[in-house]
Amino acid sequence: MSKLCKSCGNYYEGDHCDKCGYGDPNLKTHAADKYKKPTKPERFRTEEEKELYAEWEKEKKRTLR
Ligand SMILES: [Zn+2]
Question: What residues of the chain score a pLDDT lower than 50?
């Protein structure tokens, strides 16, 4: 079953994201912020994705201050 990456929103198989490396202990994932953009139109989003995007919005507000 695919997992939704908490860092970039990509779906991945296995134990780490193949797009940003999230979950891979050998890789630093601090550069993943550039991927934190919703890539789907709102009506096609799953509940899981909506939650994740809401998290990103909160993070953005925190870092913009
Ligand atoms: Zn990722």
Answer: none
